[in-house]
Amino acid sequence: xxxxxxxxxxxxxxxxxxxxxxxxxxxxxxxxxxxxxxxxxxxxxxxxxxxxxxxxxxxxxxxxxxxxxxxxxxxxxxxxxxxxxxxxxxxxxxxxxxxxxxxxxxxxxxxxxxxxxxxxxxxxxxxxxxxxxxxxxxxxxxxxxxxxxxxxxxxxxxxxxxxxxxxxxxxxxxxxxxxxxxxxxxxxxxxxxxxxxxxxxxxxxxxxxxxxxxxxxxxxxxxxxxxxxxxxxxxxxxxxxxxxxxxxxxxxxxxxxxxxxxxxxxxxxxxxxxxxxxxxxxxxxxxxxxxxxxxxxxxxxxxxxxxxxxxxxxxxxxxxxxxxxxxxxxxxxxxxxxxxxxxxxxxxxxxxxxxxxxxxxxxxxxxxxxxxxxxxxxxxxx
Amino acid sequence: xxxxxxxxxxxxxxxxxxxxxxxxxxxxxxxxxxxxxxxxxxxxxxxxxxxxxxxxxxxxxxxxxxxxxxxxxxxxxxxxxxxxxxxxxxxxxxxxxxxxxxxxxxxxxxxxxxxxxxxxxxxxxxxxxxxxxxxxxxxxxxxxxxxxxxxxxxxxxxxxxxxxxxxxxxxxxxxxxxxxxxxxxxxxxxxxxxxxxxxxxxxxxxxxxxxxxxxxxxxxxxxxxxxxxxxxxxxxxxxxxxxxxxxxxxxxxxxxxxxxxxxxxxxxxxxxxxxxxxxxxxxxxxxxxxxxxxxxxxxxxxxxxxxxxxxxxxxxxxxxxxxxxxxxxxxxxxxxxxxxxxxxxxxxxxxxxxxxxxxxxxxxxxxxxxxxxxxxxxxxxxxxxxxx
Lengths: 382, 388
Hints:
heterodimer, A: 382 residues, alpha/beta, Peroxisomal Thiolase, Chain A, domain 1, 9-stranded mixed beta sheet, 14 helices, 11 strands, B: alpha/beta, 18% strand
């Protein structure tokens, strides 16, 4: 890999329901990131966006719809489906290829115009086996949670603690959709959706328009005094059929290992200062701790108990409130990258963590019980 | 710019109405074909790019999940590239950038569609937003027939001449499809049948329009080092270009279609092509509609604006002509949409490596592949050559 890629600026719009329409939100977030970077739309080399037709308000071919709103008119553009971190890494590739020195990366999802998330995720199922039994992401997660608790003796209280922490963190995040001061009991008594999952342990359906300007090293030097560097990426896909998978031995370890190798990290637990991870279901944050190497197998419950992952802890995880606080399905991965960027730059406002953040981990997942994972490492250091 | 990238092998399914297989089985058939062609195995692949039309087409969303096994992506990084009709070309571009960036050496690109599982025109109607465009833009023929009419009007072309030239294109492509073992529609037809075929959307008649096909195309891209090690003829990526117009049909000039013109210009500049009609040996133009194909010839500099029908009737773009276009029979005879753009790349690669079989253009060394999509918005181009 020759050369390096920096994130120059970021912008985000999020929340539960906006008065602005899709076009306005797509345009405003794009305009904001370009204004912050001091770049005109004509100076943007290429545009890589992410959106999914199934999460796009009933309009197919998402990028056809918002093409000019993300300044892609008469530019070389492309779109990634499902996971917005795919768009981040594709943007990085375009710069590393030497073809472009700036790329606008966008993640777009207007939850308020979509049906319930699981009406959409149910469409991931094949028509023969999974569709007829009503499989969707929440059903899949309930299997995974039960298995996780049984195999490792993790308690429902430990799972609920993730929601307590993240929804509390979200109080300091003006971009969060759902937030509040809850107790473990509040979380456990918030109403069972699918046993053992309760309402507050399941991510909401949110809006999320995220834009990011990437630049080559040379270009970044002209645009910002505080570049945040793209340092590594890994992603991995699991097999489709449920019966073929061990739901507790997924692909996140593999994705993380690739990202750590690329970023040159050998002791991620110590080298990573902060993590923004995708936990559409509270217990998954504990599982992902283990797969990311933040603790040993089956020790996710102990880690949350220890307070290490609190905002004031040694390794803050989801100081933004994470996906439990704001869940624009497709753009949630890129939203994690935006939050990591802000923490690295020290610009996260009230949610800025106490410790200095040099290296941050960003994670996205989509699919039944985490069928696909993507991990990116960002950092302030060259 | 970047590292050199080559197409080292291609695979296609037999395209058509494939009710003999399920959708994942069809995908697997296409993917296995490229492994057979290259002698590579899934272990040699660093990452997979896949893509298709909107989920409404077959009723399964985010198909990289369902096809994880069929595309041999388990345990690997994937990218899921979708840009409507130009998806197949955008998949090829993604594979190119992945390798050119240095982040991978060998990438499998897979485009797939099984259109007989659903209602393609209903699906494409949902590309238009519900307030202004959807009430009158129904499916692809609506959009592209309007575009043909705008073009004809702009250059004062007579209905008769354009009709005659379109029929010539239809006849030659339908004949060519017999030389392509993977083509879907194989019918012997006459000019008389073509001009009298049932109207779909004026001026488009049944034999001016592509079919609904089930089909998959898989292409393996590799870095220069890996490609040379394989010791076989490969097709080098010489240039790539892509442009997108505004969404609302009335906002952009569709007769001198700027996104097509600019996409080709970008690719030509990279490939050092100044006179495309002379320098290119063959072109695979994405041609679901005969009328639109002529307009695209002009956008790509194969003909001056308004000149395409005359050149078509002179045989300039026929198999023995100066610049043979769509010797495979093109999209007109085979259109599994998510695969169609990638099939253009595969066909261009076959031509410049001399593997075109019965539809080989003798001595082809430089080829253009193209795809388009959106509400007449997107155009993507890739130039492939036999020499780096």
